[in-house]
From TrEMBL:
Its cofactor is Zn(2+). This is 5-methylthioadenosine/S-adenosylhomocysteine deaminase. Zn(2+) binds at H69, H71, H218, D306. The keyword S-adenosyl-L-methionine does not apply. Residues 60-410 form the Amidohydrolase-related domain. The keyword Amino-acid biosynthesis does not apply. Binds 1 zinc ion per subunit. Catalyzes the deamination of 5-methylthioadenosine and S-adenosyl-L-homocysteine into 5-methylthioinosine and S-inosyl-L-homocysteine, respectively. Is also able to deaminate adenosine. CDD domains: ATZ_TRZ_like. It holds the Pfam family Amidohydro_1. Its EC number is 3.5.4.28, 3.5.4.31. The gene is mtaD. Substrate binds at E98, H191, E221, D306.
Amino acid sequence: MTSVDTLIHAGWIITINADKAVLQNHSLAIKDNLIAAILPTVEARAQFTATEELELTEHVLMPGLINMHGHAAMAYFRGMADDLPLMTWLNDHIWPAEGKWVSADFARDGTELAIAEMLRCGTTYYADNYFFAEATVDTIVDSGIRAQLCFPIIDFPTNWAATPDEHLQKGLALAVQYKGHEQVMVSLGPHAPYTVSDEPFRKIVAAAEEHDILIQMHVHETQGEVDDSIKLHGKRPIARLKDLGLLSPKMQCVHMTALNDDDIQMIAESGSTVVHCPESNLKLASGFCPIDKLQKAGVNVTIGTDGAASNNDLDMLSELRTAAILAKAASGNAEALPAHAALEAATINAARALRLEDKVGSLEVGKWADVIAIDFSELESLPVYDPVSHIAYATSRNQVTDVWIGGRRVLAERELLTLDAEAIAQKAKAWQQRIVEARNV
Ligand SMILES: [Zn+2]
């Protein structure tokens, strides 16, 4: 008998491997933070002894979900301003609230709430774009989650830094500090083409090259952004970014509505990733990202929730379902983004964008054991002809029961093991009270 740390006997395993294999009555073994074996349960019982052995025979195991775009600490602005178009929402509500409240404490506490929510919906890796990233790192590491921290760079002063150069210097110091860290990847997060001018963009391109780090940015969030760019720069945002040298496999373009065929061609040729945030785009009436066309052109498409202030949750299961359904409506093609492709967008495609496809994004021997278990025993999940279909079209986040990240169990039967849920709730209520009282003065 071979000894392992954890042995999980599952009803189904959705591997997201190259063969799209979905295995029935198989088991997954974890040893030293890695997936040690995936094999039929009868063989696993004969071959392995484990420190912890779980019978999840009515559950599906799949790779942890990767939320490729958000603003974690904005969980504290959830429900603060709804039913508004993007620029009104930003100018009249979000930016003033950020000016008043955002600090290291706000970022740390708000991020903790967001991580708790994400772990409870099966997210094991998330991309963040927020201020005071350095104040959130300890919370991330202690919770067990993994994060791509895209530090902001913007033309105007923020509570974090006064100039684009200061934003860049502070963020790059963090990038140097966490280079090679298994839970924290630091990346450049210029806000958007309409809030960053050419000179900082040139420095961003040079920094990405020098430090070999990735870039994530809001691009083509609305038609208005495209129109303004043509007026101001004489070209569409994608063409401007291309001319500035920003489009490359290092680039993650978030939103990407209002694209024409030339834009799609430029993105495809550059090897840049698209991060589709369907629920935020729908709620802010921002437009539609043509993911069917993008995928047909060979573009790597991933999924993100965006911040809880514009969604208003961080639920990747709901997000991938919305993506799968919206793709069909937006393209007039019911075959667009089929169920398995939606799961790939939320897992292995994101791993590719992060340059971690040999570590995360699928359940394969030798990869980090980032695994989630979803309960299919309730009436709402019966019958089960195809577990992939259920995950895409008929599963709620409340069915996510267990989560392991690097073999460490962080959620057990929906209980958070690494975070104090009661303390997180108390902090959220205390911040709410401060924010409401200040509004009423
Ligand atoms: Zn965003």
